[in-house]
Amino acid sequence: MWAQWSQFGVPDGCVFERSGGTYALKTPIATFPYNGVFRFVESDGVDDRIDRLIADYEKRRVDHFWVVHPTAQPADLDARLHARGFAEVEVCPGMVVAPSDLATEAPPSEIEFVPIGPDEEGPTIEFVAHRWGVPAQDRALVGRFFRENRIGQPDAPLRGWLALLNGHAVGKAFTYRKENVVGLYGVATREEARGRGVGRAICEHALGQSCRPGVDLLVLHSTPMAVTLYEKLGFRHVAPFRIFSRAGEVHL
Predict the structure, then answer these.
(1) What are the beta bridge partners of residue 242?
(2) DSSP strand E in 65-198: where?
(3) Alpha helix locations (H) across 133-220?
(4) Which phi and psi angles does 83 have, rounded to 5°?
């Protein structure tokens, strides 16, 4: 999870900070999900570390979240966040499948898949901005995320695809490879195309294109509403990722 999200710390003005056992994303975008603590494994000065992280986000006036993962420390991190006004807003099941166990079916004939590269920057940014409600003044930074991570380059770990219906982008998905593992991220389908098999089709295509030699595990963290889709693809639950925030719903 945090290997993929670290890519959002690449552009100037953004950082994916690694300090001891803490990994935190910090960007100028004030809306979710562009600021958050993805990993927290600390034993010394815990309360001071928590308070300093929160104070930094509050000083910059950005919404932020915490991921309480299965290996988080201290064991009562959730209670410490509750005491500071945070609430658990979502539980994202961590799921895995071996490439050989991935269940596939033929995609709907009317769907076309396009790899995301420089020519697809415009529709991709518009899609992402619509999905996350990114303000107009911050959309240029979203474009920089993709350009500076070289999305579309053959050797780039971050890859993406659009699903088109009648030439219109109605679905997207990204994958991120780290060593022998490929993660599926950023899956979304436009409201007008739901129920037409777009979600499953774009997931299967993205994973199929990313299962290169040496990859022996596929991973993702699902929203609660998408669990059934991923189970149909063969993914199984291995761990919960609990999302905490002060400012409302966060969907990773």
Answers:
(1) 68, 91
(2) 65-68, 87-97, 111-115, 158-165, 168-178, 181-189
(3) 139-148, 198-210
(4) -65, -20
For residues 107 and 204, the answer to whether their CB atoms sit within 8 Å is yes
Reported pTM: 0.92
Per DSSP bridges, beta strands 158-165 and 22-26 are unpaired
Q: Please report, rounded to a whole number, the percentage of residues in the chain having pLDDT higher than 70.
A: 100
CA distance 222 to 210: 19
Fold of 99-238: Aminopeptidase (3.40.630)
At 67, list the tokens.
């991921």
Q: Where are the domains of the chain?
A: 2-92, 99-238
Q: What is the pLDDT of residues 196-211, one digit of tens each?
A: 899 999 999 999 999 9
Q: What is the helix (H) or strand (E) element at residue 241, kind and residue range?
A: strand 236-245
Report pLDDT digits (tens) over 184-195.
999 999 988 888
Alpha-carbon span 49 to 55, nearest angstrom: 10
Query: Six-digit token pair at 35?
Result: 């600021």
Could you give the CA distance from residue 229 to residue 27 in angstroms, rounded to a whole number? 31
Q: What is the DSSP letter of 157?
A: S
